[in-house]
Specification:
Order of helices and strands: EHEHEHEHEHEEHEE
Radius of gyration: 17 Å
Number of helices: 6
Bound molecules: 5-O-phosphono-beta-D-ribofuranosylamine
Structural class: alpha/beta
Number of strands: 9
Length: 216
Amino acid sequence: MARLKVAVLISGRGSNLQALIEACAAPDFPAEIALVISNRADAKGLDLAAKAGIPRAVIPHRDFATREAFEAAIDRALTAARVELVCLAGFMRLLTPEFVARWRDRLVNIHPSLLPSFRGLDTHARALAAGVRFAGCTVHFVRAEMDEGPIIVQAAVPVLPGDDAERLAERVLAAEHRAYPLALRLIAEGRVTVRDERVEIAGASAPPETVLNPQR
Ligand code: GRF
């Protein structure tokens, strides 16, 4: 079986990277991580990649005069590693519309909210302030607008009494670690199509019932 060659772009902790590494370790998983790129030399995620024996590239954005030059270096690394899909996982640089267009429908991101709610930063504090009963995460194809693009997988978690941003973030993060490997599997199995800017997934099954919060 030819596995889909994936690059994961990070800037920090790398817990989603770790979830993808663990998924790819299963012999029947249809994707492999060919390269991890970080724009920061001190990203903890680089150690996780090293432990897993995955090739790493540090491409510091500060070394480049322009965003375009920085992205050209990323692009060269991706091409050299024959990468077919790019997964952003806590990559904290905005990408130009040109880069996004070049990797259209081959570039995915995970965002810690149920998009299109709460784009941008501080999602958990904002979700709590809004009083929503469910929070969650979204894996989506990347478009030029930040945190926008066809949605592949979402995971919902309840907001619980007494939650603060940190506790909610922890619950959402656990869901992220399930959602991202699932999205990668669906893509690598060739089951994901973008049609009219919405995702269709061949043979997908949905959860059986409505979930209420509170339950009574
Ligand atoms: C995650 O919450 C992800 O949704 C967001 O950035 C965070 C990255 O965390 N885009 P990690 O580096 O994967 O641990």
